């Protein structure tokens, strides 16, 4: 074959490449191999052999979930959350749920919600997640040993811990009518925004509210130095939920919505109930439910807790605020791809105090767990049917004396004040693509509850362009010679 014939053949082949409508029509195995990007292949951790939507892949992310009933105590400056948040084994997403961040008295339940403790918890969480490289970040204490907050606005505090300056998390790209109708429930980064992101404005602050002095926090003060960004936070009386993500992950969070259900006094007050957070991460829908269910250890109280769960699942309705008809945005909790439920579920052990105490002394965990109300109710199909929970290898998390490893009942002779130890604080999940890595309790003595933490790997549907954004541009350059079949030498 002459040189001229070789040139004509090469031009003809190049023409076929750039005019074909379907790559699969080319039968050259050399060409197909040239399209396999080793960087993309290494990021795909599952889904091989399965039929995936065109242009999508599955990637795994690490999610840390924790629940902690803090007994109405406001945090102090010396409270270090590094161990609680397991900062030495960092995750991509942190979901933290608190109960009783304020005392559940009439003033907080009926009159005015105190958000000062919530602002302090955010500052402490930010301090641990965005610790400076020298590890010396601490909060400056004012007189009396408490954090300096001057009637903090939770909204202003939240702004300080967000890294996305242009995309405000409490802005909505929907039409004006929908935005006005659902101003308290929101999404951001709709699939087809009708306004420029640069024009988005943050939710207005409450008039007359005073923000706290951010200079009091010695962690990284500029967003460029922050590793984690606050995505969402919400308080309902004593329940408080906060969601954080790696700075580079925030751009893939969309359709963020929050729903609150009150199940307290008369079934309508917020001293009990839940906060649910719904969002899309890449193309997978997530829902996190933080709840504080009905208390009590009398026989039959577990049925009230069952009813709380059923009512939460029934009545939680996320608003359809996105103006686009996007079918992947669910409205109900169980419609999400992946759901994680955390909180003080308040299920007790169906034994007397003396029987429970004896089994605790003998470390007879199996017998104790067989009498766990949540386990009994789940196995009977009366609550959380189809949900999963990891194996419990830790001691009951409730109820302790403050700043002590002693259970409350050991020093109380009155049966009215005595509490039988129980696994009140739990984390469960529903859906596919969730793998639990750990399920432990923390050992902080700050509260009468011990915190409970779980770490998961979650499978997330990712568009190929979402993967390619993480690849250096030099790896994406393809020379024309790479598209040509190799010649036998």
UniProtKB/TrEMBL annotation:
It is an enzyme of class 3 (hydrolase). Pfam families: Exo_endo_phos2. Gene3D superfamilies: Endonuclease/exonuclease/phosphatase. Its EC number is 3.1.3.-. The keyword Hydrolase applies. Keywords: Hydrolase. SMART domains: IPPc. Belongs to the inositol polyphosphate 5-phosphatase family. This is Putative phosphoric monoester hydrolase. It comes from Rosa chinensis (China rose). The lineage of its organism: Eukaryota, Viridiplantae, Streptophyta, Embryophyta, Tracheophyta.
